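ParA family protein: structure tokens wanted.
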Amino acid sequence: MAKEPALATIAVYSLKGGVGKTTFAINLAWASASISKRRTLLWDLDPQAASSWLISTDSKSRDAAQAIFSKDVEVRKLIQPSTVPGLDLIAADTSLRSLDHLFREMDKKKRLSKLIESLGKDYDRIILDCPPGLTETSEQVLRAADLIVIPVIPSPLSQRAMGEVARYLVQRGGSHAPILPVYSMVDRRRTLHRKALDEQPGWPAIPMASTIEQMTVRRKPLGAFAPASPPAKDFAALWTMVERQLLGN
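Answer:
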């Protein structure tokens, strides 16, 4: 049996915005903390701060999220408990808008990896909610992650974006974390979506559902208010797949 890693980092990443990335990050983090009972940290790196808004217990905007990377603020000082028991949060704020510029100036390709390593004694799983696009920040994320979960809407444009990420990783050379593509916002009534699912039957799929939309009203993960709903069960199954990949099973 494979030895469990002391810490594993899962990046929820997409080249495109609007693919359900925050929904994935929140629900996978919930599953980690609540189903697997892992010591879990959700690190919101997206300046839109949607994950932070959904589960933060701190209403103040500190504008310090970028300062972690320039060593102006010690990383643990920005960790807060979330509204989910067992799940901690490093919230995003608008200071992250200039994070790419900071990374270029610093020229330290593994700054995020080093910060994650420093948290290894405190956490078992770190979930990264990443900004979209191929940027300096995404470079840092792709180096730091042990697994990259990519939500893909069943459409040609979204699938093309997924292919671009795969090509980019190959072109960089060297080893990179495994990619786990997951169909997102699936509507099986649509011919285009059914065709995409038929073409990639091995990909997990998360449906388009009004229950998921309720997350923004209730400001809770699915498992906290609708654990028996089909989307909550699909996210739980996805988390089981993530854990198996991390453990090499």
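The first helix runs from residue 21 to 34. The domain at 8-42+77-248 is CATH 3.40.50.300 (Rossmann fold).

Cheers.
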